[in-house]
Design a protein that fits this description.
- The protein is mainly α and about 150 residues long.
- Helix content is about 70%, strand content about 0%.
- The longest helix is centred in the middle third of the chain and has 23 residues.
């Protein structure tokens, strides 16, 4: 817990420091550094809580051994591979297609089996995010095959 807490704090400090050099936004006044800084602040606060708990002797005493055959570990591995595939296919297939498929796949990994609802949620969330970026923030996302 001490190592994880210190590592999290170092990452948070680095992200906040790096975000400080992002260009300022004169229109929204938040700028591109806002969200990375907020997320890094949350990481830093969580890491600090973990570190203080570990230093006060309230860290977990025992952990379960890592088992690659554990279903949760396998789902995490598949999720990681899906995220990597998402990054590679993002520009090729476009935001709407790849994001809808990615969200559908993650829901499938979480053992959801209402396929109609899964499809509606994955497409709906993707379209809402696309509309926010495209219309509200005026940031174009790759159209891919739909372009």
């Amino acid at each position: 817990d001490i190592i994880a807490g210190v590592t999290g704090l170092l990452i948070a400090v680095y992200v906040i420091y790096t975000a400080h050099f992002f260009p300022e936004d004169k229109v929204l006044l938040l700028g591109p550094s806002f969200f990375p800084s907020v997320l890094a602040g949350g990481l830093g606060l969580s890491s600090l809580v973990l570190l203080v708990a570990a230093l006060r002797g309230k860290a977990r005493r025992s952990t379960d051994p890592f088992n690659i055959k554990d279903p949760g570990v396998r789902r995490a591995g598949v999720s990681l591979l899906a995220a990597i595939a998402y990054c590679f296919l993002f520009n090729v297939l476009g935001f709407i297609i790849v994001s809808s498929l990615y969200l559908f796949g993650l829901m499938f990994l979480l053992h959801r089996r209402d396929y109609l609802r899964m499809a509606a949620v994955s497409v709906g969330v993707t379209l809402v995010v696309y509309a926010i970026f495209n219309r509200l923030l005026d940031i174009s996302l790759p159209a891919g095959l739909l372009g």
